[in-house]
Amino acid sequence: MVSKKVLIVYAHQSSGSFNSAAKDAAVEVLTAKGCAVEVSDLYAMTFKATATAEDITGKVKNADHFCYGEETKLAWEAGKLTADISEEQRKLTEADLVIFQFPMYWFTVPAIMKGWMDRVLTLGFAFTHEKRYSQGIFKDKKAMLSFTTGSQESMFSANGINGDMNVTLWPLQNGILHYCGFQVLAPQIFWAPSHISSEARGTMLEGWRTRMQGLLGENPLAFTPLDCFDGEKGYQLKPEVHEKHAAKEFGLTVGNHLGKALPPNNQMKAGV
């Protein structure tokens, strides 16, 4: 059997952090299972976070009205993206599974990781108008978020002050990962590790180690397929999809909720 390749995109400044321990556990367990694991340690790499014209070697098509998406598409086609972007695209192309390991900053990923997404997931390489969502370029790859929070789990509930974590995750998991076609695995959330005992943190890591034993075989989260939307009518849900779900209690997904109650744990658990 061909060994699976795993890319861990890691963003934390400290090797003594819980995020570092979670990353190390993933490397250890997945390597022991026969996977080839690569880590992109973004802070250690001093990875550039800003998407600028400097990401292209040589002349750009229109310097007076620079359009990052179009210019990087042309540069990717011509092999003129900078070496740091090309190397990350190589890793991503080879990977069967991508794990994003990070501390949640302001309800999303740290700036350096968002910069990785902005600069590496270029038009043409990671998506096109025709190839996105369920028909996306990376539809044969899996991806997931693994992250720590500063707030307790109760605070990220439907009744909590931070709001429903399922809603928080929708832009990242649907708007970035699923948009590029990835099969998105349920997130690994480490709730407020800085506020619990070292023993409890150890239990969290053991849970992560246990999950990784079967991680590559997990079913992904559910998203509404692209062909349920009418491309000639502004990509609205087709009438027959509406009719099929008219009598159901919950909407299709967190984002495609049809004005109904959100399906519970839609962005946190597979098979719901």
From TrEMBL:
Keywords: Cytoplasm, FAD, Flavoprotein, Metal-binding, Oxidoreductase, Phosphoprotein, Zinc. The keyword Metal-binding applies. Its cofactor is Zn(2+); FAD. One of its GO terms (molecular function) is dihydronicotinamide riboside quinone reductase activity. Residues 4-202 form the Flavodoxin-like fold domain. InterPro entries: Flavodoxin_fold, Flavoprotein-like_sf, NAD(P)H_dehydrogenase_qn. Pfam families: Flavodoxin_2. Homodimer. The enzyme apparently serves as a quinone reductase in connection with conjugation reactions of hydroquinones involved in detoxification pathways as well as in biosynthetic processes such as the vitamin K-dependent gamma-carboxylation of glutamate residues in prothrombin synthesis. This is Ribosyldihydronicotinamide dehydrogenase [quinone]. It comes from Gymnodraco acuticeps. The lineage of its organism: Eukaryota, Metazoa, Chordata, Craniata, Vertebrata.
